[in-house]
Design a protein that fits this description.
Layout lengths: L11 E7 L4 E8 L1 H8 L5 H18 L7 E8 L3 E9 L3 E8 L1 H6 L14 H4 L3 E8 L7 E6 L5 H13 L3 E10 L4 E11 L11 H15 L3 H5 L5 H9 L4 E3 L3 E2 L1 E2 L5 H9 L3 H7 L4 E5 L6 E5 L9
Parallel strand pairs: 5-12
Antiparallel strand pairs: 1-2, 1-10, 1-11, 2-9, 3-4, 3-6, 4-5, 6-7, 8-9, 13-14
Length: 311
């Protein structure tokens, strides 16, 4: 792989592999995409940072799956940030939103200064609850969902706990979200390494493979939050810095973009599906307004613009 620091691309998933030890990984870089999503709402900075991590984690995990549809990550909990939702389509369209209690958030002690990109605390901001991962491939297929208790200091640790408990897959994850540059634009980065056994699995894990996994995890841990969000550090150069002695190999990247799936027609269809008495109540007002929780787009409907589906 090249080592020169080419102009760094953004908003992508960079798959890679460490061949000698059967390790697969993904490096995520989000620039304008994450900035657009987080800037669409007036989130307090801790909430925006936590949502940015959830979105980055969703992109990291979706890249590990073979699916045709939408992958969704959701947390639900009893803390100041009571809900996080992030989803990724097969085509790389990403969106996300957060629900939070502004008063509870304001009453929290001011956090101690952290390094750029450092992860916010799950116990402090999210509290006790669960994290769920859902793959929805359409009406004619059965949805897959995995749910696990939120256990960990940050979202990366919560996801690793899920893999250990639910999938019996060894995986390491690092996430970082921060404002950068004079304009304070949001950026995010993520790394994931997975241990992939050969077909048929191991009867006995060879010592060199076990040592290779441990060494790769140590090397991944040296990636700093600042490096993961650095707009001047290309994905190839970062991977070379981390794993050049291990023989890292990169593959074609997958683009990511901020794109909501809401539309006027889709929301009108949802309104028409409401019970008749609810529609009657809405039609008493000259205008019914619906605001998308994801992209904050507002849709106004006149009373005569929607009618029940069975009318």
């Amino acid at each position: 792989m090249p080592v020169e620091n080419d102009p760094p691309p953004d908003d992508l998933v960079q798959p890679f592999q460490i061949d000698p030890f059967a390790l697969r990984g993904r490096l995520i870089r989000l620039g304008p995409t994450i900035d657009r999503i987080l800037s669409q709402h007036d989130y307090p900075e801790p909430v925006a940072t936590m949502l940015g991590e959830a979105i980055t984690l969703a992109v990291v995990l979706a890249g590990a799956l073979k699916y045709d549809g939408v992958f969704t990550l959701q947390t639900k909990s009893d803390g100041p940030v009571r809900l996080l939702v992030a989803d990724v389509s097969t085509e790389g369209a990403v969106r996300g939103y957060a629900q939070y209690d502004r008063d509870r958030l304001a009453s929290m002690p001011a956090p101690s200064p952290t390094k750029r990109g450092a992860s916010p605390s799950v116990p402090d901001l999210i509290g006790a609850g669960y994290i769920a991962f859902t793959v929805d491939q359409g009406e004619d297929t059965e949805r897959y969902q995995g749910i696990v208790e939120l256990i960990g200091a940050n979202l990366a640790e919560c996801a690793q706990h899920y893999f250990r408990q639910s999938e019996q897959i060894q995986a390491g994850i690092k996430l970082a979200v921060a404002r950068t540059g004079p304009a304070g634009a949001w950026r995010a980065g993520g790394l994931m390494l997975q241990r992939v056994p050969p077909e048929g699995g191991y009867t006995v894990i060879p010592d060199d493979v076990e040592d290779g996994w441990r060494r790769a995890m140590v090397l991944m841990s040296t990636a700093t939050p600042a490096e993961l969000v650095d707009p001047e550090l290309s994905p190839h150069l970062l991977l070379f810095r981390l794993f050049h002695d291990e023989g890292v190999r990169v593959f074609d990247t997958h683009p990511i973009e901020a794109r909501c799936r809401c539309s006027r027609e889709r929301i009108a269809g949802i309104l028409r599906s409401f019970p008749m008495e609810d529609i009657d109540d809405m039609q008493k007002d000259p205008v019914t307004t619906v605001t998308c929780e994801f992209c904050n787009t507002r849709y106004d409907f006149a009373a005569d613009e929607f009618a029940p589906l069975d009318s």
